[in-house]
Amino acid sequence: MADAAVHHDIAGVYEPSLFGTYSKKIGMWLFLASDSLTFGALLFAYSYGRVSNPSWPTPFGKESIINATIMTACLLSSSLTMVLGVLAAHRGDKSRTRNWLFATMFFGAAFVVLHGMEWSKLIHEGMTPFTNPWAPSVPQFGGTFFTLTGMHMLHVTIGVIYLGVVALRKKFLPVLLLLWLIGWLATPASNVFHLGVHVLLIGAVVAAMVLFLHPKDYDSHDVEVSGLYWHFVDLVWMFIFPLVYLMSTRV
Amino acid sequence: MHTVAATHDERKAQYFWVWGALLILTGVEVFLAYERFFQPVRMLEVLMVLSVIKAALIIAYFMHLKFEVPFMRFILMAAIVACLCLMCIFFADAMRILSLGVK
Question: Phi then psi for A249, rounded to 5 degrees?
Fold first, then answer.
C-alpha cells in the first residue's frame, strides 16, 4: 500500500461548468427537460385520442371556460410574483423575497382549489377515468383528461410545497400539516380530494427529511432554481389550456 | 451611467410587460375559441402558434434563458424541441384509424 497521499491541485482538477453557470441550475434545467417529455407524452396521448375519435366530447361550457381562464390568469400572475421574488433575492432583500414567494404560493393554491372545483363538477356530472356522459363510445376521454390535468395539479401542489420550504424552511412544516388536516377533515369522504389531500402529508414527510437531513439557509440561487420549476409548471399549462379546454368548448 | 438599481428597475418593467403580453395573448385565445372564429383544424394551428409564443416569452424572460450563454440555449432547446417533434410521428397512425378503422 502506498503511504503517500495523492495531492490534487483542486483548481485544476475540475473542468469549468459546461454551461457557464452553477450546477444546481443545470440540474434543474435537465430535470425540466425530462419532465417536458413526460408532459409531451401525456399531451400526445390526449391529442392522439382526439384525432382518432370524431365523436370526442366537448363538455366545457361557458362556466368551465371562465374558470379555466381565471386559473390561467392565476398561474401567469404567480409567474410574475415569482420572478419579482428572484429579483428581490438577487438584491439581497430577504423580507421582500419571502413576501413575493408567499404571493406566488397564494396564486398556486388558488389554481389548485379552482381546478379541484372543476374536477368535482365534472365528476358530479358523471365523468370518471373510464366513462363520460357526453360520448359513451369514447371512454378514453376521462382517462387522458384526468391523467394530464391531475399530473399538472400534482406539479403545482409540489411547487407550492417547494416554495414554502424555500421561504419558511422548518417553520413551513406545521403549516403544511395543518393544511393537510383541514383539507382532509373538510372534504367529504365521497370526494376524490378526501384521498388526494394526502399528497400534502407525503409532501410534509419528504420536506421534513430534506430539512432535517440537509439543513441550510436557502440563498438567491435556491430561489432562482425554485423559480425555474415554478415557471415550467406555468409553461405546461399554456399548452394544456388551449388543447384540452379551448378546443373542447360547448358554447 | 447604468447603476445596479437602474438595471433592476429595467428588469422589473420588462417583467410587467411580458406578464401583460401573456395575459393579452390568453385573452385573444379565449376570444377566438369562444367565438369559434376558425374551423377546428385552423383553430388548432392558431392556438398552437399563440401558445408557442407564450411559451417562448416565459422561457426567455421569466426563466432567464435569454440571458444564459448561447451554448446552453442551443443544447436545451434543440434537445427538447427535437424530442417533442419526434412524438408527432405517431399522429399519422391516428389519421389511419380515422380513414381505415382499427385493423
Answer: -80, 145
Report how far residue A185's alpha carbon sits from residue A179's, in angstroms, rounded to the nearest whole number.
10
The answer to whether B40 contacts chain A (CB < 8 Å) is yes
Tally Cβ neighbours within 10 Å of residue A48.
Answer: 19
Task: Mention every residue, 6+ apart, whose C-beta is less than 8 A from residue A167.
Answer: A97, A98, A101, A102, A105
Q: Which of B19, B83, B98 sits opposite A76 (nearest CB)?
A: B19
CA distance A80 to B76: 23
Distance CA B75, CA A70 (A): 35
Rounded (10°) CA dihedral A202, A76, A224, A153 = 20
Q: What CA–CA distance (Å, rounded) separates A228 from A237?
A: 15
Nearest to A69 among B26, B76, B93 (CB): B26
Report the alpha-carbon distance of residue A184 to residue A181 in Å, rounded: 5
Q: Kindly report, residue by residue over A141-185, the tens digit of the pLDDT.
A: 999 999 999 999 999 999 999 999 999 999 999 999 999 999 999
- Give this prediction's pTM: 0.91
Candidate from B36, B58, B83 with C-beta closest to A235: B58
Cβ of A69 within 8 Å of Cβ of B87? The answer is no
Q: What is the rounded distance in angstroms from the CA atom of residue A199 to the CA atom of residue A158?
A: 9
Domain residues of chain B, as ranges?
Answer: 1-67, 69-103
* Burial bucket for residue B63 (CB in 10 Å: 0-12, 13-18, 19+): buried
Three-class DSSP category at A34: helix
Q: Which domains does chain A have, with CATH numbers?
A: 60-248 (1.20.120.80)
Q: How far is B42 from chain A (nearest CA, A)?
A: 11
Q: pLDDT-based confidence at B62, cuts 50/70/90?
A: very high
Question: Which B residues in the span 4-23 are in contact with A, Cβ-Cβ below 8 Å?
Answer: 8, 11-12, 15-16, 19, 22-23
Question: Looking at this predicted complex, what is its ipTM?
Answer: 0.90
